[in-house]
Design brief:
- This protein is an all-alpha fold.
- It contains 3 helices and no strands.
- The longest helix is centred in the C-terminal third of the chain and has 42 residues.
- The protein has a domain of 37 residues.
- Helix 2 runs antiparallel to helix 3.
- Helices cover 72% and strands 0% of the residues.
Length: 99
């Protein structure tokens, strides 16, 4: 093993991490949107941490977690609804046109 190798490189024939991320983003674009929503909610709630008033820290963190999870679950649900629409409704309407 050489210490001069620098960055870790994937084995031959495998995608790098950035290529995998781009491929997964093209396959399901709502996943990065959900992740971004989680990060935005978490950043906003951390920013508002000073203005929480008399609310306990644990309650504030629980509310932050619930809001971030709601963004992620919402994106997953939108993705599922879109996939069902694309697979069933569009396919059914195309099948009836062909007949």
């Amino acid at each position: 093993m050489s210490a001069n190798r620098g960055w870790w490189a994937p084995p031959e024939g495998e995608d790098s991490v950035s290529e995998k991320l781009l491929r997964k983003t093209r396959e399901s674009p709502l996943v990065p949107i959900g992740l971004g929503g989680c990060l935005l909610v978490a950043a906003y709630r951390i920013y508002r941490l000073k203005a929480r008033g008399s609310t306990k820290m644990s309650i504030h963190l629980i509310h932050t977690r619930v809001a971030a999870q709601a963004c992620a679950v919402g994106a997953i649900m939108l993705g599922a609804v879109y996939t069902m629409y694309r697979d069933y409704i569009k396919r059914t309407s195309q099948d009836t046109r062909e007949k």
